[in-house]
What does this fold into?
Amino acid sequence: MNLVFMGPPGAGKGTQSRRLAVELGVPHISTGEILRSWTRVDSDLGRLTGPLIDTGKYVTDEIAIGIVDGRLRSPDADSGFVLDGFPRTVPQAEALSAMLLKSGKKVDLVFLLNVSEDVIVDRVAGRRSCPVDGMVYHLTVNPSKVPGVCNLCGERLIQRDDDRPERVLERIRLYKNLTSPLIDYYKERQLLVSISGAKGQEGVWAEILREIQSACSWACKNTSGNASVKWLA
Ligand code: AP5
It folds into this structure.
């Protein structure tokens, strides 16, 4: 399946979409993670986009579309993918449809994770991320086994620059102005599945699995060897 996760900052898109991609055996494609990886090496693109990301602004549609267009051409995305944080504007959504159409594909489902501003502020304040593999933790809800250290690679965890309170407010403002129009865009196309992201991580996960099962029961039943088959057992 070709899946999209959208929602405000801190809604849990990264947490859930990464887990779902592992479960389905398809790539997890996060434009935010790819952009952050650019800033860690000395490059023109990193110098151009780093200040935008750090201050909570969006990069241009052209850059975001270019990232996804290139990534979706990789063979590992042929049998499906989970997009996290893309599309974020209506032009990005239109570009995504056009790029998929070229290979006879389409977006199958769009998960919208809804959370209130209070929840966003709490989650973002407590978030700690691994700069190497993008793993995300929370100081209280989802702490790493060794405090301050990534469970997977042992790297020291960091607090993202764009997680400072004033930058989070800017990100919420942009989400409302530029990304929330996508809610109607995908509703009209009957692709939107709206989920409360305010529940605990396992509660949100269970709801996502339920929605996928009901949306793809035919495909799952007819795909032997696919990880998703086990959900039907
Ligand atoms: P991006 O990395 O995509 O940031 P974002 O959309 O603001 O989302 P976040 O990563 O802040 O949150 P999330 O929803 O993934 O939540 P998470 O799972 O981490 O993008 C960063 C920047 O890149 C953008 O601001 C922009 O500048 C640029 N960019 C990216 N894509 C772009 C595009 N397409 N166009 C233009 N610019 C683009 O969870 C948050 C915390 O809560 C964690 O600590 C987690 O452990 C915890 N948590 C998660 N779920 C739960 C739960 N259910 N209960 C309790 N705690 C939870």
